[in-house]
């Protein structure tokens, strides 16, 4: 049976509403990451507590997105590209919620650390890498979601290719923190907390790559992981 123009318009409106909801989820998760890193550098324990407290908002939005997807499938019985897009939206919403969880985990570390920002006493710990590492991971999340909103497979592939940047930051942090631990036992506790922070940021970058792979599949019907890699390991 051919859909009427009214039905097609309603379907488009429902999909657009779903995309807008997921975009808000992404903005919420990015803001949580930015705020968590700011609180870490400024030793703002109260601000960190607020980040943890508002995490439920992202949980609520994920539940709304899941409900929205189920309702659209039940009402419209989409097929082919539309169905693939809705399934991707469902998975993306869950991934964005997990990104928010990693930002929350960073905020939870703030009260466990002494001040590490510019106002603190000189520290051998390599904290200067964290803001840039977080900026890159946040940009990956933003670009992956922008690719989803615009169905831009090329942008999604670029996000995947940039994943190793965050990995390189994490490797540098790991080496520096291990060196600090070996040089002075008193560095072990704070360095361990910072290592967990770096690991959470690295996982956010991994999830951004997962988002981009889902977007690529939704837009093209092909899995990015099946494409040929170049000599440097970047997917072509």
Radius of gyration: 20 Å
Per CATH, what is the topology? Methane Monooxygenase Hydroxylase, Chain G, domain 1
Q: Give me the CATH architecture, please.
A: Up-down Bundle
N to C succession of SSEs: HHHHHHHH
What is the percent of helical residues? over 70%
Number of strands: 0
Largest sheet: none
**Overall CATH class:** Mainly Alpha
CATH homology superfamily: Phosphate transport system protein phou homolog 2, domain 2
Average pLDDT score: 86
Organism: Novosphingobium organovorum
Function: Plays a role in the regulation of phosphate uptake.
Domain PhoU: 22-110, 131-215
Subcellular location: Cytoplasm
Question: What report would you give on this structure?
Answer:
It is a single chain. This protein is mostly helical and 236 residues long. The chain has a single domain, classed as Phosphate transport system protein phou homolog 2, domain 2 (Methane Monooxygenase Hydroxylase, Chain G, domain 1, Up-down Bundle). Helix content is 78%, strand content 0%. The protein contains 8 helices and no strands. The protein has helices spanning 5-42, 45-53, 55-76, 80-109, 129-150, 153-161, 163-183, 188-220. Helix 5 runs antiparallel to helix 6 (153-161) and helix 5 runs parallel beside helix 8 (188-220). The radius of gyration is 20 Å and the shape is elongated. The model is unreliable at 117-122 and 226-236 (pLDDT under 50). It is found in: Cytoplasm. Residues 22-110, 131-215 form the PhoU domain. Plays a role in the regulation of phosphate uptake. Belongs to the PhoU family. It comes from Novosphingobium organovorum.
């Amino acid at each position: 049976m051919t859909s009427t123009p009214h039905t097609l318009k309603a379907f488009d409106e429902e999909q657009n509403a779903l995309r807008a909801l997921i975009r808000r989820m992404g903005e919420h998760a990015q803001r949580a990451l930015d705020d968590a890193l700011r609180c870490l550098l400024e030793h703002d324990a109260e601000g960190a507590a607020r980040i943890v407290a508002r995490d439920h908002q992202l949980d609520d939005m994920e539940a709304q997105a899941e409900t929205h997807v189920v309702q659209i499938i039940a009402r419209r019985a989409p097929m082919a590209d539309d169905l693939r897009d809705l399934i991707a939206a469902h998975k993306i919403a869950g991934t964005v919620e997990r990104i928010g969880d990693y930002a929350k985990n960073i905020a939870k570390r703030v009260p466990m650390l002494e001040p590490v920002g510019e106002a603190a006493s000189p520290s051998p710990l390599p904290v200067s890498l964290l803001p840039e590492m977080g900026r890159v991971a946040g940009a990956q999340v933003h670009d992956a979601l922008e690719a989803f909103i615009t169905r831009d497979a090329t942008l999604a592939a670029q996000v995947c290719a940039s994943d190793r940047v965050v990995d390189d930051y994490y490797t540098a942090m790991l080496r520096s923190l291990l060196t600090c631990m070996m040089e002075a036992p008193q560095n072990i506790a704070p360095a361990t907390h910072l290592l967990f922070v770096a690991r959470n940021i690295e996982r956010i970058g991994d999830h951004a790559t997962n988002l981009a792979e889902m977007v690529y599949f939704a837009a093209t019907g092909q899995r990015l992981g099946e494409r040929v890699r170049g000599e440097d390991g970047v997917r072509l």
